[in-house]
Amino acid sequence: MPAKGKIVVNDFYCKACGLCVSVCPTQVIQLAPERLNVRGYHPAEQFQDGCIACATCAMVCPDAAITVYRLTPVAEQEA
Ligand code: SF4
Ligand code: SF4
Predict the structure, then answer these.
(1) CA torsion sign, 32 to 18 to 20 to 48?
(2) Atom of ligand 1 nearest to the CA of 46
(3) pLDDT of 20-57, one tens digit each?
């Protein structure tokens, strides 16, 4: 069974380049269609479940805007 995870994007640093969106193997990231950050970009966000905590998005982000969390069984129960 693949790991379960989630990401948190630091809106301030995201410049909406879309790299994370394009590499996510489970396609759970989008550029927030109705939200802008203070620099005027639509920031990336996880919009549905299915993150497997592979960290590919965090590795490709040129601005280190993504933090990946691997959910433990206890955390999954609390989520
Ligand atoms: S950690 Fe992997 S599965 Fe999760 S959002 Fe990033 S690229 Fe997608
Ligand atoms: S790779 Fe980084 S800067 Fe580019 S859209 Fe994703 S979070 Fe934003």
Answers:
(1) positive
(2) 5
(3) 999 999 999 999 999 999 999 999 999 999 999 999 99
Q: What is the CA radius of gyration of the chain?
A: 12
Find the domain containing 58 and state its range. 4-78
Q: What CATH number should be reported for the domain holding residue 25?
A: 3.30.70.20
Q: Whose CA is nearest to atom 4 of ligand 1?
A: 51
Q: Provide φ and ψ at 21, rounded to 5°.
A: -60, -45
CA 38 to ligand 1 centroid distance, Å: 24
Query: What is the spatial distance between Cα 34 and Cα 6, in angstroms, rounded to a whole number?
Result: 21
pTM for this model (two decimals): 0.91
Q: Which atom of ligand 1 is nearest to the CA of 5?
A: 4
